[in-house]
Design a protein that fits this description.
- This protein is an alpha+beta fold.
- The protein has 18 helices and 22 strands.
Length: about 650
């Protein structure tokens, strides 16, 4: 009762203007609280969507990377075994190769690797030395049947439980070119389970799983769920997810399960499998309710205590606060993020991982600070082009019509980093006045990309370009208007090396020829293996026979110095055919190849280690001019002039 009387007195003593101001203050406070709550809701929802999408993307990338090592090993092994089968190599040679590859992959990539095996050339061969039981029929095994049913592709066989180890395994297999042989290897799924657990642990309330093509959980953040067939379940989270995927085939959707809402993100990975990340939204929204209640209480107190201050608060201040939160969240992506004003050469940090000073401090001398950082933190080999990249005097021109430019470089720790300028503010005429400078470490991403590119472009036995890569590079040079010398090389009597001394010596011959070619030709020249015992090279800018002979004699001198493991095999002989693309009148790769091939035919008709030059530009249609190599030609004709 006393409290009621006091309140009445307070209200009675308030004038109309004060009362109106108080009511308005309450209304404004309520509106502000609603605005803050809605803003938090939107930012939380955006964070939830971003977190879920990043989780499933990260999961897919890590799962694909985990599977790709073994997949690449199978591709390389299949290529080699195909080559051995084409050469009618004995089973002992193929088995030795499988054993060597199994040991290499085990030592270099995965200690748990169980080895390469398969039904090859009508026999079961196992690189790990496993001997099957008498009743074991390879051609009736799931890995053989799946590969045979899907020629010209890598197949992933559904998981199974290994009877000896109790571990969940999968098999990947490939049908070889003879249409009957199949090569395969097993992959343990412990790594997938570990990746699943790590990703689920990073985000509260997250369920992460991997479904195979039959909608069975082969990895799950709840280990007890592994092996469950969700297509037959309708009342579990996994069953609801599978049903939604079948019905709508969406990569992102919401569903209700066990009085909770889940935001589900999915992405397809290797083998036709699917990675799934399901986030319980309550884990994110529960703290939001507490924040809203706390904000409400704080607003009421603020109205009663400092009415004037609350009345001056504006929506702009709230928006700036939310914008600052968003900027800080974006800044966390980078190891370093700076806000640079190009007009007055000032800067301040948007994040500060390495020190504790106030990141809101404004600093002068932005350009000098950037130069100092490059000299202090960037690898010496990368400093010149990095100093050019951070030059403010050209930055406005380089950002014309663009929102961002980036560069990759090595730091002092020999780690790859990416630096990025982001346009933050422009004048009405388009002139850039303010930028963000961010640096992130991308070492793992860069080195994986380079490794995959190397595997795609290189002949794995010899280390020179494979045929596809070599032809593409030569084609690019020719299309750019430049010409040069094209040479076809063919190892003399190569089949005798294999037949008399074994494929190991044959491989040594090919590797030796490739090394001699790399040492004879220049760094900008293209050296490639066409296949079998055939190689080719393109010397850019070499237009005359005189210059070409010097390069070729250098190659034959290198070849003379090669000593094979079996001296009784003798010296390596190589015949060559040469054609030219004239300066200023470049021809096509096909014309170059056909002209050199015609010359090679002439070389092969006469003597070993013979070079035949085409006297006319490729494509003219004239006959070749044959002449012997003075150091290596087995002919009584005059030697080539040097």
């Amino acid at each position: 009762m006393n409290n009621t009387i006091i309140l009445r007195k307070v209200l009675k003593n308030l004038g109309r203007r004060q009362l109106t101001a108080l009511i308005l203050s309450f209304l404004l406070t309520g509106a502000a609280i609603l605005f803050i709550g809605y803003s938090f809701y939107r930012s939380t929802k955006a964070e939830l969507e971003l977190r879920g999408e990043m989780d499933v993307i990260q999961s897919a990338e890590r799962f694909n990377a985990y599977l790709s090592y073994d997949r690449n090993a199978l591709i390389v092994a299949g290529y080699k075994v195909n080559s051995l089968l084409m050469k009618n190599a004995p089973a002992e040679d193929i088995l030795r190769y499988l054993e060597a590859q199994t040991e290499d992959v085990t030592n270099a990539i995965d200690e748990s690797f169980t080895g390469l095996y398969g039904w090859i050339g009508g026999e079961y061969l196992d690189g790990a030395g496993w001997v099957p039981d008498e009743g074991y029929v390879p051609t009736e095994r799931p890995w053989y049947l799946a590969a045979a049913a899907h020629p010209h592709q890598i197949v992933f066989v559904d998981p199974y439980v290994d009877q000896q180890t109790g571990k969940v395994m999968i098999t990947i297999a490939e049908l070889l070119d003879d249409g009957e042989s199949v090569i395969a290897l097993d992959i343990g799924l412990d790594g997938l389970q570990q990746i699943t657990n790590e990703i689920a642990a990073d985000t509260p309330g997250t369920v992460v799983m991997v479904l195979d093509s039959g909608e069975v959980a082969i990895a799950h953040s709840d280990a007890e769920e592994v092996g469950r067939d969700y297509k037959a379940e309708g009342d579990t989270l996994g069953g609801l997810i599978v049903r939604e995927l079948r019905t709508n085939q969406n990569d992102c959707f919401m569903l209700e399960y066990d009085d909770s809402s889940f935001m589900v993100f999915t992405k397809e990975i290797e083998g036709g499998w699917r990675c799934v990340s399901a986030i319980n939204t309550q884990a994110f929204y529960s703290p939001l309710r507490l924040i809203i209640l706390f904000t409400l209480a704080l607003g009421i107190v603020a109205v009663l205590v400092q009415l004037a201050i609350i009345n001056k608060m504006s929506g702009r201040d709230l928006r700036n606060r939310n914008l600052n939160i968003q900027i800080r969240a974006a800044a966390d992506i980078y190891d370093s993020l700076l806000d640079i004003n190009l007009t007055d050469d000032t800067w301040y940090e948007l994040n500060n991982r390495d020190n504790t000073e106030d990141i809101s401090l404004l600093h002068t001398g932005a350009q000098n600070s950037m130069v100092e950082s490059v000299n202090r933190l960037v690898n010496e080999s990368a400093r010149p082009f990095m100093l050019d990249f951070i030059d403010f005097s050209t930055l406005k021109e380089r950002l014309a019509g663009k929102n961002t430019i980036s560069v990759e470089f090595l730091n002092l720790e020999e780690k790859w980093c990416r630096g990025r300028f982001i346009c933050a503010e422009r004048k009405p005429d388009g002139t850039v006045t303010r930028v963000l400078w961010g640096v992130e470490i991308i070492d793992d991403e860069r080195r994986q990309r380079e490794r995959l590119q190397y595997l795609a472009e290189t002949d794995m036995m010899t280390g020179v370009c494979n045929r596809t890569t070599g032809e593409n590079r030569i084609g690019e040079i020719l299309r750019s208007g430049k010409g040069g010398m094209f040479v076809l090389f063919d190892v003399d009597h190569f089949k005798e090396f294999n037949d008399r001394f074994g494929h190991a010596l044959g491989d040594q011959v090919l590797i030796s020829v490739a090394n001699c070619l790399k040492n004879a030709f220049r760094g900008e020249d293209v050296v490639m293996r066409l296949g079998g015992d055939e190689f080719s090279a393109f010397a850019q800018g070499v237009y005359t026979r005189e210059t070409g002979e010097k390069i070729l004699h250098r190659f034959y001198d290198n070849l003379d110095n090669v000593t094979l493991e079996r001296p009784e095999a003798g010296k390596i002989g190589v015949s060559a055919g040469v054609s030219f693309s004239p300066e200023g009148k470049p021809t096509s790769f096909r014309d170059l190849y056909e002209a050199a091939d015609q010359c090679m035919y002439e070389s092969k008709k006469t003597a070993d280690s013979r070079i035949t030059f085409c006297d006319f530009p490729a494509g003219v249609g004239q006959g070749p001019d044959s002449a012997a190599c003075s150091a290596h030609g087995q002919t009584d004709q005059a030697p080539l002039p040097l």
